[in-house]
Amino acid sequence: MAIRALCHLPGDTVLRQKATRVPSIDGSIQQLIDDMVETMRQADGIGLAAPQVGVPLRVIVLQMPEEELMVIINPEIVKSDGEREVTEGCLSVPGYAGEIKRSVSVTVKGLNRQGKAIRIKATGLMAQALEHELDHLDGVLFIDHVKSRDKLYKVEAGTGPEEL
Q1: Residues with a known catalytic role
Q2: Is residue 5, in this structure, part of any structural domain at all?
Q3: How far is CA 114 from each of CA 34, 40, 104, 120, 151, rounded to the nearest angstrom?
């Protein structure tokens, strides 16, 4: 396992590319997953998409506080319900948070790291994290959902949000 460098805006163009489907789950994909988990944990994140470490493949890892690690390969949202306003940030857009709209609940299908089909129904923070990470796979960042500049904030370490 290795910690990989995180990609950031504005320079890393992989963040704006649509990721490609994983054709087969081989050793290189297993290594990518292990590296993504280690990188996410080292950065104190709850989710990470492969494009955030420079790999344009449809792989995400998630770990909610007090929950088991989730790995989803070739994930797709098959259902979403409701709408709520949340404050969101991103490891690839450090120092900023914004108020955006996310679904109340989502259902996602994909494959686990063993290649078995899985289906996840989620609400709350998990639904938000799933939508956030799947957005990354389509080249979309949370800042693209911010409706106006007064909904985007600069966040200083150790302080609350500061309006830009």
Answers
A1: 133
A2: no
A3: 13, 20, 29, 16, 40
